[in-house]
Amino acid sequence: MSNRVGIEVSIAVAEAVGLCDVDVVAAYPITPQTHIVEHLADLVAEGKLNAEYIAVESEHSAISAVMGASATGGRAFTATASQGLALMHEILFAVSSLRLPVVMAVANRAVSAPINIWADLSDVMPQRDTGWVQLFAENGQEAYDLMVQAFRLAEDHRVLLPVMVNLDGFTLSHMIEPITMMERNEVRRFLPPIEPARLLDPDHPRSIGPFGAQDVYTEAKMQQEMALLRSQEVMEEIWQDFEAQFGRRYHAVESYRTGDAEVVLVTMGAVSETARAAVDEMRAQGIAVGLVRIRMWRPLPQEELRQALEGAKVVAVLDRMLTPGGTGGPVGEALRSIFYDAPVRPRIYEVVAGLGGREINRRTFKEIVRQALAGQEQVRQFTFLDVRCA
Amino acid sequence: MEAAIDTQKISMKNLPAFEALASGHRACQGCGEVLAMRLAMKALGERIIVVSATGCMEVITTPYPQTSWLVPWMHVAFENASAVGSGVAGALLALARKGRLAGGDTKIVIMGGDGGTSDIGMQSLSGALERGHDFVYLCFDNEAYMNTGIQRSSATPRCAWTTTCPLGEEHPGKQEAKKDLVGIVEKHHIPYLATATPAYPFDLMNKVRRGAQVKGPAFIHVLAPCPTGWRIPTQEVIKVARLAVQTRDYPLYEVVNGKYILGKPGKNPKPVAEYLKAQGRFKHLSENDLAAMQQEVDERFAQLQWLASRP
Amino acid sequence: MMEIRFHGRGGQGAVTAAELMAQAAILDGKYAQAFPNFGPERRGAPVTAFLRVSDQPIYLREKIESPDTVVVLDPTLIDLVNVADGLKPGGMLVMNLAASGRGALAKYGDQFQVAVVDASRIAVETIGIPVTNTAILGSLIKACGITSLKTMEGPMERRFGRLAAKNLLALQRAFEETEVLAAPAAPSPADAPVVQEPCTYAELLQREALLVWDQLQIGCDIDRPGSTAAFHTGNWRSAGRPFIDRDKCISCGFCHVYCPDLAMNFTDDGAIEWDHRYCKGCGICAEECPKGAISMREESHEQ
Ligand SMILES: Cc1ncc(C[n+]2csc(CCOP(=O)(O)OP(=O)(O)O)c2C)c(N)n1
Ligand code: SF4
Ligand code: SF4
Ligand code: SF4
Ligand SMILES: [Mg+2]
Questions:
Q1: Which of A167, B148, B267, C205 is buried deepest, with most CB atoms within 10 A?
Q2: Which of B139, B142, B232, B236 to mutate to test ligand 2, by most ligand atoms within 8 A of the CB atom?
């Protein structure tokens, strides 16, 4: 394994984007995304990446510029986090509605106020309904691999949707860890050159982004929804090809030691590795606990989740975002909805924790499992696990 | 590669037959903005990509499943046309370098109303100007947000009525002066900048052509009367636009690589009152108001003359 | 409950007419709703507005499909749009028509009741401009009741301020001058129109959809450049059309350059030709023709 190197995950992500031969990068700096775009700027400046780097004046313009680039037939990339993602919100809908296959990395970070630069999912979760494919990386290798897979998924003519790859700010983005890097020719074999489904071309004029009244809006949304649902099958196909070529296997939902588990933890993102370690330690103490990790969040792999959690007595969900005034965090709500009609329903024990980068460690998961098994009362649909109270 | 933009000077004898817009668009009767847009596009020809901000022109040309556009056209949102256009520019450069562009040379045309340019789109415009992409920007200034029903913009002139600067007892019409958008753009030191109006159609078309021929950003500010919002009879749209120039309320000029070039000003300017009184949105103006407006016009014009006198 | 549809042109105040009437009905203690039908079309385009009035609270927030009454503000619309579309058999048509244009009523007379008034003339004589949206309300009140002239005073004063008196005069005069033509004899049961089976919801959707979802272009693109040419805006004209005096025309082309709708074009042999399909009747060409060769004159709608 000569290509196995110790590298900061942000740099690796940028390298992956470079290997994909992107044509345009447009980005605006924000912690903890900066290292990704700085490295891309380096690659372009040094002539290692034949692309245009557009140093736009805001994230709103970053996402707008990649739309323009994509509609012109270019492969386009941007990255952001937190406030930047929030600033893009309006345009995120337009990217997916206009079916432009751009790829974006999000170094997940809490949203102000108080201003806070550390990881949670309160930036990405409010973007859940913008129509993007949303993937979550657990470690550096995944973040790196997902970047390459993301372009192939986005550009597949059965999909033609933007793809967002999420990686936890700092705990993943700034970590130095071993990553097996790919070769440019290998990536080219896996990811064919972009073939735009349609583009702005004076020789074949078309109007992109028209005024669509009541008589067509619903059909337009239906078209988009069907493409988003289809993207799961296409992703499975891509993951099979990826395994065949690179030997690493990915699934939309991944289960760990769930076979005979009484309680199953559900997590997303980089905290999942810690959760796995906690599961091992609890198993060693004789607790029948397993872990289910969601890698693909949109489209939601409902059937896979249902199967993965079916046998459990209690499902213990960690949500790293609060849905203020609602019925729990987004993951908890999704699981309740999946099981509502099931003949046998696990109890769903949901906690909200880790906001604004508050430490999540093995103790956290052990406490979640302890509470879940103890059948602790929940006043609303969730427990605020790590809040200090008088 | 063939150049995207024809270099010939346009006159009635030498009028391009090309139209980028088809009839059947849904603009109001006598819309001065759609006329200005039609003329500008005529000058540009077919090797262009148009990126449009939200506004009247976007809505009235693309009612699904029909489009008036005969050239490639894209619209995303109200405030980001310049950014979308920047991305188009980036992709064209990269693709050309990589030999992946099929057709000939292509010019990027970004357009927006006064709202989409001098208010909500100001940031993305400024960014694109500063970065120096190769595009021509067309601002069609009808001095209000017309698409949403005649609300005030920063380009609405002092005293004018709109639905959000109504004629109240306390505050009759807009209290503030029109934002100096052209001055702001000029400070970006772009290679070409000009003012125009469809009342002088050949001047407008030639400026658009000249702007499109420079490498880098060019900006054409077009005063485009909106009969609906200005409260003028439709047949007077051109007359009113002409009065704007004849009264020096809206002088025609170019700024080429920083050098101001004032169009022939005409010896005897008409009083600005003639321009203002032709419009319902100013009909409440008192003689005092008119005198103050005249003074503003004179001062602005003197300033412009001074700028044009510099070497 | 009474359901009313107004036909006007963008900018003529059909929506205001519906609103004023609703406000008056509400002042009378009734329940009412007035609402527009928004679209991308602008000033001059045929538009509709709706009004519901009832003694009972109204729990409907849907379009009016089969009105009891139809009000037509602009006589030029009668030949352009099917103003009686969905009007209930025996329903009321309130029309603004000059005495000379009453031939147009023949086709409605045996199915509907008709109230007719020359609202354009009344508006010019009272308000000074042919804006008929207040005059026509006088006619509607005469034909259908709904509210009284007296109740209209409040809403009109609030809406028009200084100009209210003139508008109230227009209302009053239209009320007096409206002729309600004899109602058709009640249809005998044998002649009663066959009641159409209501189609299913799915059929209805199918009929309305321009395209089913999987046939749309990716991202709802439009790949038919210039396709608005299929949409003829000629029916937006209401105040005359340009006539070219061939003796004066020197084919200079200014009318072509200044036309916002590309409705003045050169023929192959260099003459200027007017395109009735797209001309919206703005009058710019007539104003700008350096030879005074164009005049705006009323057109006969039979053409
Ligand atoms: C973010 C956002 N805010 C508001 C609007 C509503 N809006 C659409 S067009 C428009 C005004 C357009 O004014 P202008 O740019 O002057 O163009 P005009 O219609 O006058 O040609 C407004 C306010 C919008 N589409 N997006
Ligand atoms: S409102 Fe004004 S700018 Fe908009 S279409 Fe009508 S005339 Fe043109
Ligand atoms: S502007 Fe007048 S003279 Fe010139 S072509 Fe038109 S009609 Fe003829
Ligand atoms: S009146 Fe003249 S300028 Fe106006 S649309 Fe008709 S032909 Fe064109
Ligand atoms: Mg405007």
A1: A167
A2: B142
